[in-house]
Amino acid sequence: MADIPDEPRGERRRLGNWLPRKEAHMARFRVEIAAKAFARAAGTPRTVVVDELAALANGDPVLRMDMTRAIHEAQDAGYVLGYSTIDELMAIIDFLMTYAPPFSEASLIHCPLNAVLDWPMCMPSGHALFRDPALNLQLKRVLNTWRGFLDGPYSREHLNAEPPSGWFCPEASKHIDMSQFICDPEKPYWGFASWNAFFTRQFRPGARPVDQPDDARIIVNACEAAPYNIQLDVKRRDTFWIKSQPYSLQEIFTSAQVELARRFIGGSVYQAFLSAFNYHRWHAPVSGIISKAYAIDGTYYSDADSEGKDPGGLNDSQGYITAVAARAVIVIDCDEPAIGQVGCVFVGMADVSSCVIQALPGQRVARGDALGYFQYGGSTYCLVFEPGAIRNFVPEPPFDDDVPPIKVNTHIATAR
């Protein structure tokens, strides 16, 4: 096993506290998790979905080539992975099927599989590998199995106030103010039935009031998220895979939604990303009737090769992944005619990426009403507006990576 370098090479600008910024912390995690995984694999049969993933990777010659080369390319570049073969990687993935992330003040790993794949996925062979439809379909099954564990009572190991790994310990409280959320410190696990119940915790009533509720032209933030990008005059089809990653409406909404994509040609997109420590539910940015609500299968670990060895993992590929990643689309026919329709696109990034839609076609929603939630994993979202609908956006570029998220239900744009 390679030594962890004292001066880590290739420090990455990882946003949102999903992964540590220091590569040494990432490398140490990979080495430690690999040792535990290999020890477990010696006496424990693999989970069925991981066995199927291994069979796919080893049985398809192109996938086997790309996966093996991506691992070796990362190692040749000097990165410490903790594994060197497909079978060793499968042992680690299998171990992670019963892993609930502990809190860590110094090196928090919210997305463990993303940490394991961090460098292979942005190597030349990795770019091709993680776009493969068959691989992504099986990765979805693997991640859904892990989600099942996180939905259950055995995932609550770290839902306590014991330092240093408990999510309610004093150090963790500096990052998450649990007094804002519905919970009960007097109950075991503070009343949460599972890790995912904690991750999708809900605000107490009144914690996030809707800005200017009597003004129908005010558009509010659909997620607790930091601004990432604003783009005007968006195209129906565009070259989303290049360095600037322009939004491509037909790919965002899919080829089955041609008329929907056409409606937004020449319009604008507001995109923001969610931090690991923050609220992960979605709320209606406008009042109106849900006209469409659908989920789209896509990629989980594909980032834009135009970014090279992407300095921010998936973060610098957020424009690109709106067209390729697993995501949910909810379209609202607004009560305010000046706004028209708004496309709400909730994009999963990396581990699990479960986009759960709650508001279905035909339902009326008011600004601030629940639309759905990200069950686990990194996440970004877009609001897509018709041409001429927006007078001005409140957040203005350039956007700083380290700014706090804008609170959900906060004024972010004004209609004409």
UniProtKB/TrEMBL annotation:
Domain L-tryptophan decarboxylase PsiD-like residues, every copy: 49-175
Keyword Oxidoreductase: no
UniProt keyword annotations, A-Z: Decarboxylase, Lyase, Plasmid, Pyruvate, Zymogen
InterPro entries in alphabetical order: PS_Dcarbxylase (IPR003817), PsiD-like (IPR022237)
Pfam families listed in its UniProt record: PS_Dcarbxylase (PF02666), PSDC (PF12588)
Protein name stated in the entry: Phosphatidylserine decarboxylase family protein
